[in-house]
Amino acid sequence: MQITMTVFLLLLLAINSIMIFQLRDMKKTDILRRLRNMAFGVAGIIVPVMVILLTKDRQIAYYAFTFYYIAFAWYAMMIFRFSVSYSGYRLFKIYKSPLFWITVIESAAFIWGMFSESFFTITHARWYDHIYWICRVFSMFYVYAIVGYITLTGAVVVLIIAATQSARIYRLKYSGIAIIIAVMVASRVNAQLRHQPIMVQAVCFALCEIVIVYMAVHYAPRKLNQRAMRFVVDKLNDGIVLYDDEHQLQFVTAGYGDAVGLKGMQGIDNEEMYWTKIISEANVGNAWNGRVMSVDRDDGTYYYEIQHMALDEDGKLIGTVYWIRNVTESIKNYGEMVRRANFDELTGIYNEAHFHEVARKLLEEHPDTDFVMTCSSVEKFKVFKEMFGQEKYDDYLIRTAESLRTGLVHIPNCVYGRIGESDFYIMMPKEAFDPQQLLDAIDRVAKAYSTNNFNLIIKVGVYEITEPSQDMLAICNKASMACDTVKGDYGKRILWFDESIQKEAMLRERYNAELTKAIEHGEIQIYLQPQVDKGGKVIGAEALARWVHREDGLIPPAHFIPFFEMNGRITELDICIWRQACAKLKEWKEKGREDLHISVNISAKDLYALDIYEHYVSLVKEYGIDARNLKLEITESAIINDLKQHVRLVERLQEAGFEVEMDDFGSAYSSFNMLKNICMDVLKIDMKFLGDTDNEERSHAILRSIVDLAGELHMKTVAEGVETEEQLEFLKGVGCDIYQGYYFSKPLSVADFEEKYL
Description:
Blueprint: H1 2-25, H2 30-54, H3 58-86, H4 98-116, E1 120-127, E2 130-137, H5 139-165, H6 171-193, H7 198-235, E3 239-244, E4 249-252, H8 256-260, H9 271-282, E5 291-297, E6 300-313, E7 316-326, H10 328-332, H11 334-342, H12 352-365, E8 371-378, H13 381-388, H14 390-408, E9 415-419, E10 423-429, H15 435-449, E11 458-464, H16 472-486, E12 494-496, H17 499-520, E13 524-533, E14 538-549, E15 553-555, H18 561-567, H19 570-590, E16 597-602, H20 604-609, H21 612-623, E17 630-635, H22 636-639, H23 643-655, E18 660-663, H24 671-677, E19 682-686, H25 688-691, H26 696-712, E20 716-720, H27 725-734, E21 738-740, E22 748-749, H28 750-757
Parallel strand pairs: 11-12, 14-16, 16-17, 17-18, 18-19, 19-20, 20-21
Antiparallel strand pairs: 1-2, 3-4, 3-7, 5-6, 6-7, 8-10, 8-11, 9-10, 13-14, 13-21, 13-22, 14-15
Helix pairs in contact: 1-2, 1-7, 2-3, 2-7, 3-4, 3-5, 5-6, 6-7, 13-14, 14-15
């Protein structure tokens, strides 16, 4: 009997070892790791039981019993931790778990008990005419037993809670393993009450462990997948029908009746009623896929798309599946589908794909006609949307499309459409194109959406199609390039494409691609334009970006800054300039020149892309400089769109010690209204203000009033763009505080600035 049980336990140990290796090779997860630990725990139980079975030496048997009970304590803890992890609950680190330390204490107590025999003793007993070592426990042993039962019962409770809280489809995942652990607890209680040999418990634990691994790794996931697939399939409105190799019905979805028009799925097991009938009416063969057929019924004609697939294994037919979808509504609504595919949903005119298609067809059908392509777009359309809202913006798009419909209806061979968010394209014969008429139509629309605070500006780019064979996207891009070149130039409204525009666009794209490396290689540098006080002393400078290109030399800022402002990369450029300014202030501080400041610019894009406050506070801290030496310039146009939020930003920056300057004061529409709401430290006035009008006397009066107003509001004034001694004397006379411009110096490299002024 001992030999038989030993061989059986060896077989279980071998199976357990194979499971350990299989679990090791699977994808590493927390659950698989805990299953592997449990498998090691079972091995720790089986080995001492085999020793107990085979040994006749009482001392060796006693030691084996001790190690068995220690192994069981650790195994119970492993089961509990597996159950918690399997149920999706968070586990403490093992050394932070009270259960871990209880198990450690139990193990230590049993090791001490090996020498004192204070927990249990062993003796021989007969079981079914065979003599075995059995354990006689003392009262201290019951503490250990109760802890083990509580641990295993806790694992069952955790799994039951998970089962009750999960969807019905997932309950098998938890309840099956809870039942197996409950069987383990029951078998242990039964074995102890009936004084069965310890090998009975070991066999039960090993078998239960094998079943747990099978349930957790194989059976439950497969069953869940099957149930989930069945759940999904049953929710389909389509009909799915599965037959075996003898064309006997095996499976049909609940959506089949809806798909083929049956009421309540009566006669679902009658093949003639629900499948052969529809096949015969369709008059189709057995080898087809995606076939659409029509079936006439009393209440009308129905259309079905039917897909067929033969299922085979090793070249032998094992079944056939049919997928049936009711496409009646789709067929009847084909016109609506075509409209949505070809027309812009909001405006009702051609969308991009259909515009390209129709325009290409026109070019091919009229090879002797000269055509032009125009692109019109709203200047700063995002500002328009933010100020007036999406509904007003949509109204503008609809009204513009309607204007195109009515204005171009009489022009033959003309096509138009909406591409992108705000761009409208028109292709028409060159002889029919009247630029002034187009601008007049645009002005009528723009005027309806302009207000005292916002002037809607629409620019137009025109491309004469000299190469009709080129790709339609390339034709549209050239009109778009011309339109983009117009943007920002308020002296122009319409611009014709030429090669210089394309070269400029390609150059901008080249600069865009090279910006990151230019920053890394130090090609982006600060140039400093000095700022002078009333006494003619240089008190600081404004940091301006210059690109010292490795091939092109010094690139004028007008060639790259507006482009980076448009595509959003101005923030990368600004951060580079800010850091260089801070590094220079740190260097000046170390040389004892803390009397000098540097002003840096903050663009509108920076306000939305960065946490400006945190960024500047971090820079000052990183470089160890005084915030008052780093002056911040913000244009009034940058803050007007979200005045309330930016008022708070300015206040926080001032609280942190920064001086905040309003740059380009007077260039926006509501400058004086802004002064009522936002408390800047400095007003910066561009001297172009004096050159924009022939009435110099009125300009002088306004400028004098601005300086006086700034004084009343306790703000300093900086005049930039000072170019003549006459301008300087006037500014001194009206009380301006600081001056900057070519009269004193052009922007200088850092080395030249330091050599000249430091």
